[in-house]
């Protein structure tokens, strides 16, 4: 299944400083939900400091997730079933100082 994952607000620093990844993940007997994607990203694309991206079974507080420019809170968060051609954007709102 083809879709795009994007990172902004500093979250891209955890992912080799790349802001966009076009993905083509295999269809299998399990649905691709955002919850499943988060752990796939951790295992396959995250380059450093997973504690800055994941907390428990979701993204950590301070990371906004948008699905096709809509807040994932309106789309069942980690349970949202990813659709072909979706764009999933992770934006960090946390800034060091």
Distance between the termini: 39 Å
Overall strand count: 7
Which overall shape is indicated by the principal axes computed on the Cα atoms? Answer: globular
Number of helices: 1
Strand percentage lies at 25-35%
Query: What is the mean predicted local confidence, pLDDT?
Result: 94
Binned, the helix content reads: 10-25%
Instruction: State the major sheet.
Output: 5 strands, mixed
What's the Cα radius of gyration? 13 Å
> Structural class from helices and strands?
mainly beta
Helix-strand sequence:
EEHEEEEE
Poorly predicted runs of 5 or more residues: none
Strand order of the largest sheet: 2-1-7-5-6
Q: Could you list some keywords that capture this structure?
A:
mainly beta, 5-stranded mixed beta sheet, single chain, 97 residues, two-stranded antiparallel sheet, 11% helix, 1 helix, 7 strands
Please explain how this structure is put together.
With 97 residues, this protein is mostly beta strands. The protein contains 1 helix and 7 strands. It has one helix at residues 34-44; strands at residues 2-8, 20-24, 54-55, 58-59, 63-67, 70-71, 87-92. It has a 5-stranded mixed beta sheet, with no helix packed on it. Strands 3-4 form a two-stranded antiparallel sheet. The mean pLDDT is 94.
């Amino acid at each position: 299944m083809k879709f795009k994952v994007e990172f902004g607000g500093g979250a891209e620093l955890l992912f080799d400083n790349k802001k966009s990844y076009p993905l083509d993940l295999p269809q299998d007997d399990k649905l691709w939900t955002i919850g499943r994607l988060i752990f796939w990203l951790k295992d396959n694309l995250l380059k450093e400091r997973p504690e800055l991206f994941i907390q428990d079974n979701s993204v950590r507080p301070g990371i906004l997730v948008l699905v096709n420019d809509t807040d994932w809170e309106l789309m069942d968060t980690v349970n949202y079933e990813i659709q072909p051609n979706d764009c999933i954007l992770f934006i960090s709102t946390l800034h060091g100082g």
